[in-house]
Amino acid sequence: MLSLRPMTGGLLLLMVCFVSAQEKTPATKPNDLPSGFSALVVYDSRYKVGPKNERDIHDRTGKIHDLISTTFGLRPMILTFVRSIPKAGDEVDALIKKQDELAETFKLRRQASVVYFLTLPDRYGKYDEKNPKGQDDLIKEATDYAKSVGTKHTVFSITEAKITDETDKSVEPEQLKKYQLKEEEKVVILVVDQFQILKRMSFPDEKVPATALEELADFLNKRYGVVKKDKEKE
Q: What is the pLDDT of residue 11?
């Protein structure tokens, strides 16, 4: 009778080595994007609303949605997090227009552009009577700004800066912690590709200097090369 002991022993040794190798491999790399990021989409520049208010089936405006994991996935992305809603002519306004311009320049690379306003005082749908600006006011302000800035490729979302936990204490949302979005950082830019953070830029206030915009453009130009604009019909 054929003995299976040598084969069984070899298989067991192989399994032990495989498990050991798995244990030594870290779950994530330092530059891995930590997770998706859910927020209320207030405006998507890529879609136009029809004359009877009909929307494209892919338009997630008015819904809480994870653009990073669900919509753009492995595509290259510029993610900008702002702790205020800018006004026309602000330095952040120039940044948003620049990243939209870069999305146009690198559209053959399917470059995505997303802006998050971290401004809601509590969980979406929960109202705080002590807050001078309710959620509806802030959502309308963010929506009006997004529509007025004149972007073609950028998606705008709004989410909580603080939430009330089960002990009625105001705390930082878990997804802000995962993305290491510190309260003292008023603007954070992440350049992402295939869920890898390629570049991180942060600013202590909303006054993003013009040199930072040049740095962002130079980084993408060096990484992807200058891409000819698509002359085909939009």
A: 44
